[in-house]
Amino acid sequence: MSRIAVIGAAGRTGRLVAQQARAAGHHGTAITRQDADPRVPGSLRGLLDGHDAVVSALGAAGRGPTDVYSAGTAAIAAADDPRTHRAVVGPSVRGR
């Protein structure tokens, strides 16, 4: 059983990822914007500790320009401990 942190777990994709992880017998930790805003540097620090994998299911509301993907990826990289060799997955989805 792996411990998987799902960032953006309140969105459509994040909810599905968390459900599938639990159904497969993994322990999933749901991380939402209420827990940490990935656009704020350092907000994810400590939340990824103890996890074997991180799934970034970040999404943006609306269709306009956004930095949530680039800022979120930077926040994940800053919060990750390079000594863990943890898998980081970011499904690429955009749409309704």
TrEMBL record:
Q: Which InterPro entries match?
A: NAD(P)-bd_dom_sf
State the source organism's domain of life. Bacteria
- UniProt name for this protein: NAD(P)-binding domain-containing protein
